[in-house]
C-alpha cells in the first residue's frame, strides 16, 4: 500500500460510483476490485485504486454476469 493511501469504506466507494454499498461488496467478492479486511472483518478499499478505476475504462457494473441493471444512455 502506498504511504498515506487512504482506505475507503464500501459506502464511500459506492457513493463515488453511484451504486449501492452491497454492489461494491459483490465486486470485491468477485475479485473485480481488491479489498483489505480489517481485524473486525470489514472491507476497506485503497483510495488510489478506486480513483484509478473511476478514471479508467474498466466498467465495474454487474451487467457482465447478468445480475445487474442496464441503465440507458442519453445519446
TrEMBL record:
CDD domains (alphabetical): HTH_MerR-trunc
Domain HTH merR-type: residue ranges: 7-55
Region entry Disordered, spans: 55-75
One GO MF term: DNA binding
Stored InterPro entries: BldC-like, DNA-bd_dom_put_sf, HTH_17, MerR-type_HTH_dom, SinI_DNA-bd
Pfam family, any one: HTH_17
Parts forming coiled coils: none
Gene Ontology biological process terms from the UniProt entry: regulation of DNA-templated transcription
Biased composition (Polar residues): 62-75
Gene3D superfamilies: 1.10.1660.10
NCBIfam families: excise, HTH_BldC
Designated name of the protein: HTH merR-type domain-containing protein
Taxonomic source organism: Dactylosporangium siamense
Amino acid at each position: 500500500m502506498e504511504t498515506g493511501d487512504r482506505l475507503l469504506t464500501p459506502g464511500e466507494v459506492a457513493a463515488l460510483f453511484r451504486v449501492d454499498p452491497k454492489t461494491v461488496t459483490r465486486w470485491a467478492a468477485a475479485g473485480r476490485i481488491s479489498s483489505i479486511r480489517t481485524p473486525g472483518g470489514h472491507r476497506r478499499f485503497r483510495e488510489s485504486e478506486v480513483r484509478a478505476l473511476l478514471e479508467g475504462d474498466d466498467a465495474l457494473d454487474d451487467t457482465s454476469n447478468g445480475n445487474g441493471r442496464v441503465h440507458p444512455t442519453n445519446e
